[in-house]
Amino acid sequence: MTQIINNQKAAAVSPLKLSSPLGAAIAFIGMKRAVPLFHGSQGCTAFAKRLLFRHFNEAVPLSTTAMTELSSILGGEENLQQAILNIASKQKPEIIGLCTTGLTETRGEDVAGILKAFREKFPELDNLPIVVVPTPDFKGSLQDGYAAAVEQTVLQIPEEQPLVPNQVTILAGSLLTPGDLHEIKDMVKAMGFNPIVLPDLSGSVDGHWEENQSALSSGGTSLSQIRSIGGSALTLAIGYSMEKSAKILYSRFGTPFEVIPRLTGLSACDRFFEVLCRLKVELSPELNSNIDEIVPEIYRRQRSQLQDAILDAHFYFGGKRVALALEPDLLHQTAWWLTEMGAEIHTAITTTEGIEAKIKNESLERSPVREVIVGDLEDLELLSADADLLITNSHGARVAHRLGKPLVRLGYPFFDRLGAAQQCTVGYRGSTQLLFDVGNIFLEKTEKAVANKWKELEIAP
User: Fold this and answer.
1) Of 86, 226, 299, 460, which sees the most CB atoms within 10 A?
2) pLDDT of 110-160, one tens digit each?
3) Are 395 and 155 contacting, i.e. CB atoms less than 8 angstroms apart?
4) CB 48 within 8 A of CB 24
């Protein structure tokens, strides 16, 4: 059992955690023609927009109710109603994701009441879904806000639909990049299913060029797709943080679900295909239940390539000490992959234990590490002096430089290297590429150690 340690420092130094409204905004960006609306001050939105722009290198739709000192005292009803009217008239979105912030949550703003009054005052906007997500900055992290946005979306929007046997809902956790989602959709389609991904960042911020720029995302999960997920044959929840959303769909529509905690590594990918094969056999009993005959040749080939890569690289991973500082789901996935490769998790830092303290965080509880610290990048620096490698976001670059350690960038934000949107670490192909990326770092480290040893012995290599 993993021990979760909450850091008792008076303040975060070099914070690792990103706010929950930011996570909710990322989820809504993955919905077609959606606008995340922060109910708070302009500063809250400006910082979030800047970080998202640096990460994706794309313009992102993000609006604010622009609360001032006066409205913070007297109430933000007028600001909120005017913001919704402006967005509806100028941008004409399909969905508005209304995210509260620390300012309005501290004040105790009755957002539900304000929205009810708005609906009564402007009935012509009844068909515009406004998904309210409570996301105070002072509670939870990016993963919590992201998960809350997905939960409220599946709670408020989908409708009862007739069963569509080949339709599969994929609830994509915050650990997945747009590149990851492209790979997942390709795998599901190759198995003969029609995937509806929620949210689908691969359609909105995957780094594609468009001639006509829009204030709204041109891709992502459409409103009609979200409404249709009530008829899916199966829900795949990628990441433990998506389990609650999957349970909501089960309680509303009776849709069975499978939680896929991770999709990096041989065993994780095998389980993913096993789930899809089982569904295919259930829907088509005449099929042979032999997985080798159901899985397309391209993925059987990729699996054998991953096996060969593991054989080639395992020597360089064995015994290496790796320090992780990641969101819980991503930490769980990365820690298991490294452990299976023979590496040792030297230090594990995460951002949140979860908003609801009574509900255990499966990602942390089931990670292959002795203890996980809910802390910051200062903790990473203090505890990782003996590590061989650091894995965290781009904010960890300074820590890696001071410690003289190599850094692999994962998670949000990823802004000091190109290709964040296209990064893929899932599936057989993504796992192989990640294995080579990390393995080459260890290989170079081994070569340098050998060269230094020759130099000490004063023997020409």
Assistant:
1) 226
2) 899 999 999 999 999 999 999 999 999 888 999 999 999 999 999 999 999
3) no
4) no
